[in-house]
Write a structure and sequence with these properties.
The complex is a heterodimer of chains A (650) and B (239). Chain A has helices at 30-51, 65-85, 89-95, 102-108, 125-155, 164-198, 207-226, 243-246, 250-278, 291-322, 336-347, 349-370, 377-390, 409-434, 443-466, 468-474, 478-508, 514-540, 555-585, 630-638; strands at residues 3-7, 10-14. In chain A, strand 1 (3-7) and strand 2 (10-14) form a beta hairpin. Chain A has 650 residues and is mainly α. Residues 1-7 and 69-83 of chain B have low confidence and may be disordered. Classes of the chains: A mainly alpha (650), B mainly alpha (239).
Chain lengths: 650, 239
């Protein structure tokens, strides 16, 4: 310790400062990362192409060289990009005992670096939140474009726009791209930007881990896109075995994406859990913690235990393909059911990782626009906890028709139907809060209506699918596709859009052009109903999913769905256009434009690096708007708080 | 080298100015979360092992030479266990023993640090590092001397992946122990700022559990109990 620095008014001894603050991180950014990633990918790919004999083939007579070369390219990309962005600098500094000084930390947080900080390994949670926002929009745009191609193919029933293999590729790539985007949609941007402020903290618990999580997401995205150029993911987003082992080298791209994405999500989950548990403001007891924080906590916890199963399903797939192991090869003692179990152990909790944050985000918004407390805050918590607890017990309802353990179908049917109870709690809280409310009709409130409507349809159709006899009829049909789009897009994406509209002024420092955004929002909503209600009809008529050619009896429903999809596309473009235009040209936003009482709105806009000059102390339960609900009044009394209309902050 | 004095005020984090106790609390939270995450991955591997062991699909669990044929078993356990090419069991336990020794050394160091003896921490973490490196070498020797390759059945695949997971875990531990030794040497780990040593000790306990799970699988779940396994690839339509 050679000197001291003043950190929030306290003199703190400092480690030795080596060179300028930030050290080598001053020289690393997206450009160096791209150079590192592409450079190492080319080098390793070249070496692999030289080392692998061109005529070698696997036990299934597939040529070995393309797999090995593509894998070498992917590994080169992952390692090179990570090195180039500075992902390993932190661990190496720790190893050599060169701890960060306060000046180093300030540099890494991006102080005084303007827009450049968005292209670097910046640790400030607000920068990471914006990076997630942009990245999520890019992935959504990519997945959305593929969706338009799918609907175009299905809509022009008199011709074939694409080859069957390319069609299969865009189906699979669309699926996994959208799943990734939806997992990120709320917890990425809003979770990172808003949650630390909402709990009265200056940053996430581990800022460098936060930056690492984001850049690993970038690393993971490129292999996914690259799959389209090496044969494509032709087996749907779930890439069931043994199809994956027999598929094109693109499967390796999928596997690399999932392996890296799971690390990113795992680290992000650790960060959220620790931040929420240990960094809540003084006085913010669990009964005073906003419901969004519970939602993000639940999503992080589900991600923490479930993602490793998904990750290992892909690690085992990769070794089956590259090292000829036989986890999923029945001829050698493997089992394709093992893959399905590992896959769906994440596959179903992931639905709630998407859904819960979107629903609780809308709850945060609606109390502000209704100026009344959340209806039954305790039931909302019970809903979140109930879903979290049951989410790991429902995975096999995706396997009813696989032939795996028929005797297990009924327990899983029961657990799946049980989980509709805590989900019902959450819907009840949304509707109960609306009840007798005086609505200040803004875009986030419109999203509440849209989501409740979609959730009803998605939820009710889900009960049919959870039912074993009904699932025998619906399994593998367009009915399933329509159902999960109602849940993931209808509730998840529309909820995220409402939440984004709510927090837009805080995220960007600008006011959103809500008129234009609302036009886009409602257009997308109407298009959504046209697309997917029609798809339910096709499903009821037994149209199978993932097919390029189909009987002419399905033509009308497919034409209608395609028209609806184009309306969604136009609506989404208008919404995105409104976001971008407002971000660039919008009026500067005041600190708290909606008069919210939450802590995050008590910070200045734009939010300073340290969020709060003095850390806040919470003295009230959340949602102390207007006259409290009689049910919540009991809670307030127990909490020893006095709720006065429109007074005070948390 | 002993630091026996205890400062009256808590040390502060150089980057945030917070008390180190707050930083320590966060680090402990992260440790437990990481253990949950790593445990989920380990459980995925153990489930894979146990699942394939239980199913013995197409009688393909055991490596060639160690598999049980229908004639041998006739739905009864054979009188003598096949002596084909299953892995020798003792190395799994020997490696677990070495990991336990490394963990004990780390705990010794941490406890000594708690008593104000930084030199004890340096000795403990250095010994743990040396044992871990030796364990890594031993693990490598075991994996390269297995009587089967990865393409010789489900048992071979599962064992090799469990051992590969061990190697991955050992590489991480060696990196962390190197950091422990260096940071203790440079007085960044001291009796007053000892949370990293504590975390490392707990992490190594988890490592012992992970290695134990692997050893239990590869010792007590060798021959598949399913002697009338499912046969895929041939179908009969009953009249």
């Amino acid at each position: 310790m050679s000197s001291t620095a003043t950190v929030f008014g306290t003199e703190v001894p400092q480690p030795v400062q080596h060179g300028k603050p930030g050290g080598i991180m001053r020289r690393l950014n997206l450009v160096t990362a791209l150079i590192g990633g592409i450079g190492l990918a080319l080098v390793l790919g070249f070496i692999a192409s030289r080392l692998v004999p061109s005529g070698a083939s696997t036990s299934t007579f597939a040529p070995v060289a393309p797999d090995i070369v593509y894998l070498a390219v992917l590994v080169g990309w992952v390692v090179g990009f990570s090195v180039g962005i500075g992902a390993f600098v932190g661990p190496i500094r720790w190893l050599f005992a060169r701890d960060l000084t306060h000046d180093d930390a300030e540099y890494l947080a991006g102080r005084g670096q303007g827009w450049h900080r968005y292209f670097k390994f910046t640790t400030d949670h607000k920068v990471v939140g914006i990076q997630y926002l942009v990245m999520t929009m890019v992935i959504l745009g990519f997945g959305g474009l593929l969706a338009m191609l799918i609907r175009t193919e299905l809509g022009i029933t008199w011709a074939e726009a694409f080859s069957p293999t390319f069609y299969n590729s865009i189906i699979g790539t669309h699926g996994i791209a959208m799943i990734i985007a939806m997992i990120l949609a709320v917890t990425g941007p809003i979770g990172n930007f808003i949650v630390p402020m909402m709990i009265g903290s200056r940053d996430m618990a581990f800022p460098r881990l936060n930056a690492l999580s984001f850049w690993l997401l970038v690393v993971a995205t490129i292999p996914l896109i690259s799959t389209l150029f090496v044969g494509g993911i032709q087996d749907g987003w779930s890439v069931y075995q043994p199809l994956a082992s027999q598929g094109t080298p693109a499967m390796l791209g999928y596997q690399m994406t999932i392996i890296v994405f799971a690390i990113s999500t795992g680290l992000s989950s650790v960060n959220f859990l620790v931040t929420i548990v240990t960094m809540r403001a003084k006085g913010m007891t669990w009964s005073r913690t906003p419901i969004l924080v519970y939602g993000v906590f639940a999503a992080a916890l589900m991600g923490l235990y479930a993602f490793p199963f998904f990750q290992y399903s892909q690690i085992l797939s990769l070794t089956d393909r590259i090292f000829d192991t036989s986890f999923f090869d029945p001829l050698q003692g493997g089992s394709v059911w093992l893959y399905q179990n590992l896959f769906w152990l994440l596959g179903h909790p992931e639905v709630y990782v998407i859904l819960i944050p979107a629903l609780v985000l809308l709850m945060e918004a609606m109390v502000v626009f209704l100026r009344k407390p959340l209806f039954s805050y305790k039931f909302a918590i019970a809903g979140v906890v109930g879903v979290m607890a049951l989410s790991g017990l429902v995975w096999a309802h995706h396997m009813y028709m696989s032939g795996w353990a028929p005797a297990a179908n009924y327990p899983f049917m029961l657990s799946t139907e049980l989980i509709s109870i805590p989900v019902g709690f959450l819907v009840m809280v949304l509707i109960g809060t609306l009840w007798r409310g005086r609505v200040w009709t803004r875009l986030p409130m419109m999203a509440v209506y849209a989501v409740v409507f979609n959730l009803m349809i998605g939820g009710v159709t889900g009960i049919y699918l959870s039912d074993v006899p009904a699932d025998q009829y619906f399994h593998g049909s367009m009915f399933v596709v329509a159902h999960f789009h109602y849940m993931l897009m209808g509730a998840g994406l529309f909820g995220a859009m409402g939440g984004l509209a709510f927090y837009f002024p805080k995220l960007t420092g600008r006011l959103l052009d809500e008129r234009t955004a609302s036009i886009g929002f409602w257009m997308a909503f109407v298009g959504f109903q046209v697309t997917f209600l029609s798809m339910f009809v096709a499903g009821l008529q037994s149209m199978p999913r993932r097919v390029l050619q189909f009987d002419s009896q399905f033509n009308v429903s497919n034409w209608v769905s395609t028209i609806g999809a184009y309306v969604i596309g136009i609506g989404m473009l208008i919404f995105a256009g409104a976001l971008i235009a407002s971000w660039i040209l919008g009026k500067p936003a005041p600190a708290n434009p909606f008069g919210s009482k939450s802590l995050e709105w008590q910070t200045p806009t734009p939010v300073p690096l340290e969020n709060f000059a003095v850390l806040p102390v919470v003295t009230q339960a959340p949602y102390g708007y207007g006259v409290p609900d009689p049910y919540d009044a009991e809670l307030m009394k127990k909490d020893g708080d006095r709720v006065s209309p429109g007074a005070g902050t948390q | 080298m002993s630091d026996t004095t205890t400062p009256k005020t808590q040390p502060l984090s150089p980057t945030t100015g917070e008390p180190m106790s707050a930083i320590s609390r966060r680090a402990k939270g992260a440790l437990w979360s990481l253990i949950v995450m790593d445990a989920a991955g380990t459980i995925a591997l153990v489930i894979s092992y146990a699942y394939l062991w239980g199913l013995n699909v197409n009688n393909g669990w055991a490596p060639p030479g160690a598999s049980l044929t229908g004639a041998e078993t006739d739905n009864n356990l054979p009188s003598t266990a096949p002596t084909g090419s299953f892995a020798v069991e003792w190395p799994f336990w020997a490696i677990l023993g070495m990991v336990i020794l490394a963990t004990l050394a780390m705990w010794f160091g941490y406890k000594e640090l708690g008593r104000g003896n930084r030199a004890g921490m340096l000795v403990g973490s250095t010994v743990a590092l040396v044992i871990s490196v030796v364990t890594l070498v031993a693990q490598w020797i075991q994996i390269t001397n297995l009587p089967f390759g990865p393409d010789e059945g489900a048992y071979a695949s599962a064992v090799i992946l469990l051992l590969s997971s061990n190697i991955f875990n050992l590489l991480i531990v060696i990196f962390l122990l190197l950091g422990m030794v260096n940071r203790t040497r440079k007085r960044l780990i001291t009796p007053t700022v000892s949370y990293q040593a504590k975390m490392m000790s707990y992490w190594m306990v988890w490592l012992c559990i992970a290695f134990l799970l692997g050893a239990v699988c590869t010792t007590f779940m060798v021959e598949s109990p399913n002697l009338d396994p499912i046969t895929f690839g041939t179908f009969t339509i009953s009249s």
